[in-house]
């Protein structure tokens, strides 16, 4: 049986990859396995907004990870861009939130977290057709282009010596004295030392299958589908991200505009449907009339790792000594990933913590 590295990470989404990066930077050798290719699931499908939607309505545990991630992103982007040559297109495009019935809470949150806010620029507002209610302009909010970020991190990890095993599904584990000693995958058996589960929306079901003898119930993570559209738009059509009620528009660096997203209970079904396409197209064209003449060129779906409050599980398995998880980031996995990865590896290596780990303990989230 092949013995894998110091650390074996299951799942090559943004959480698995950035956790691998933290491990390798700490001097550990790392293997990442994925049942498909690296970074092709939820992390690929998302909008890449580095801020939760209406963050002041979310639990403080989410703000803690997001705010710390925002401090880590600039160096991360610079490092992976320079080592991979792939630009993750992390752009400070700013975000306009058109309707804020709870504007006092919004302003209090911005003030607490030193997020600049002001009245929106006139040219941006003039390009839109919507009813404004206490509109809020957050000029510093950034976005990343998901597929490019994932490719960039993957290349960086290859250069750092991380081993990738693709098309390799974790199926079973062997447990001896409260430790996982080996795993069975679709491509063979491996001896493991430390196992990190970062399997996104699949984590709840996988946990149940892997650890049927454990008394702790599986993490409450379930698949929540999100559909997105891409408009073929000339550069300059939209200058900033716009959140209007439950939906948003995101202008990419090449000018193309994304419209998203839906929140649907699903069973790992990534199909798209015509009704949703019409709904999102109508939303986008009504909000930004310049899109009337721009065709929709892509329509896709991804499966988010949904939890009740959107708070992820970060930390050790409640019963098994050498198993941890980093999963359940629901709608904000890109925005929370750098801090989540750092927190988990700080816990594993018993390094000083930059954040309290308590809100993300198995027992706290569950
Ligand atoms: C439409 C949409 C819009 C979004 N917009 C945003 C946004 O603007 N900002 C933001 O921060 N977040 C956003 N998100 C959420 C974000 O994408 C997720 O929270 C994040 O991608 C979760 O990352 P992950 O690594 O946990 O999961 P994933 O990227 O899904 O990775 C999990 C990996 O585990 C692998 N895996 C599963 N089971 C096994 C197994 N048994 N063996 C081996 N491998 C396995 C899978 O193949 C997969 O590659 C959005 C999501 C969607 C779908």
Keywords for this entry:
18 strands; binds flavin-adenine dinucleotide; 2 domains; 10 helices; 31% helix; D-Amino Acid Oxidase, Chain A, domain 2; globular; alpha/beta; 366 residues; six-stranded mixed beta sheet; FAD/NAD(P)-binding domain; eight-stranded mixed beta sheet
Instruction: Sum up the overall morphology in one term.
Output: globular
What fold name goes in the CATH topology slot of the largest domain?
Answer: FAD/NAD(P)-binding domain
What is the CATH architecture annotation of the largest domain? Answer: 3-Layer(bba) Sandwich
CATH class of the largest domain: Alpha Beta
Given the structure, what is the number of helices?
10
**Hetero ligands:** flavin-adenine dinucleotide
Question: What topology emerges from the helices and strands here?
Answer:
Blueprint: E1 2-3, E2 7-10, H1 14-25, E3 30-33, H2 42-45, H3 60-84, E4 95-97, H4 103-112, H5 122-126, E5 136-138, H6 146-159, E6 163-165, E7 170-176, E8 179-185, E9 188-191, E10 194-197, H7 203-210, E11 222-231, E12 241-244, E13 247-251, E14 257-260, E15 264-265, H8 274-287, E16 296-306, E17 313-316, E18 323-327, H9 333-348, H10 362-365
Parallel strand pairs: 1-9, 2-3, 2-10, 3-6, 4-12, 10-18
Antiparallel strand pairs: 4-5, 7-8, 8-9, 11-14, 11-15, 11-16, 12-13, 13-14, 17-18
Helix pairs in contact: 1-6, 1-9, 3-6, 3-9
The protein binds flavin-adenine dinucleotide.
